[in-house]
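Below is how a single chain appears once it has passed through the pipeline. First comes the sequence as given, then the structure the pipeline wrote out for it. We keep one example in the README because the format questions we get most often are answered faster by looking than by reading.
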Amino acid sequence: MPPPGSVPVVGSALPLGPVPAAGSAPALGSAPSPGPGLAPDGGRGRAWAELLRVSALFSVPGDALAGAAALGVKPGRGTAYAVGASLCLYEAGMALNDWADREEDAVDRPHRPLPSGRIAPAAALGAAGLLTAAGLALASRAGRPALAVATALAGTVWAYDLRLKHTPAAPAAMAAARALDLVLGAAATGPARRRPAVPASARRAPGPGLTAHVARRGAVAARTELRVAASAGALALHTYAVTAVSRHEAHGGSTLAPLGALAATSALGAATALGALREPAGAAALAPLLPAALYARTTAPPLLHAALNPSPPLTRHAVGCGIRAMIPLQAALAARAGAVGTGLGLLGLAPLARTLARKVSAT
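Resulting structure:
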């Protein structure tokens, strides 16, 4: 899904999402020169890589994995289906984003795949449709709850690209896409199958024993839902902030948006780190500190630079870093939920995303 600012940022969006790049239209900028490593006469594969912003894909799998971690459940087959669905819906948003912006890009970004003629508009629209169908098909394999969430996510992605992108509702739509992407991972993992059975003694003697068991089960379910909602809210806040910045990436000129995003992401990183420090002593309890620090290091300097000098290049750089910052944020959320191995594994995606971003821009 577009990276926040991208899918739906499932944004740049979710950037997904699914988060198209955050903002009005994810692009490399208003200058007619091609992006890094992408010549106007490059091969068809490179054109599709640029259209789909493949370097931003590394920000997607962590949504579903963080959702599974929030449940306190190990990732399973359903989680894998959710990751596949998220990747498809994210890329659908990317293709649809450029199709919807093809006339605007012809003026401001003629080097993009569609206005430059490297990819036909009909092909981009067809790819968006096929990827959406593939994402929904994968989600259906994880069960009806996952399909319902994926359908809502797909609707958010299409609504953002076709209608909401150039309205004040754009950041909220992108934030909703990322939050839904995490909820998709939770729904696909299947917490319902792991509810404890009613003890036989309580079944034989209904009354206080059964009532207490039902109350305990309800309390556990409520705490689980709260953890999922908190993780989804963290991704939504980050996505909203980055999308607000990305709306100025083509022309720059905004100091307020980067400053607001800097305040929001700094507060989010601090809250994650402080939450870990409040836990009982132990290496596992402190595991979120490393990804939280990396998250702050990835977001804060570029946003500060963009605020001090709101030029298009620095604004686009801040947006790109904001998309990649999804990875340490997801890792921190997973580690904070107790999935330390998942969190550390997600951190391994960060250098891959940074390396590929040098060849294919994430915005």
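DSSP finds 16 helices and no strands in the chain.

See the next section for the split statistics.
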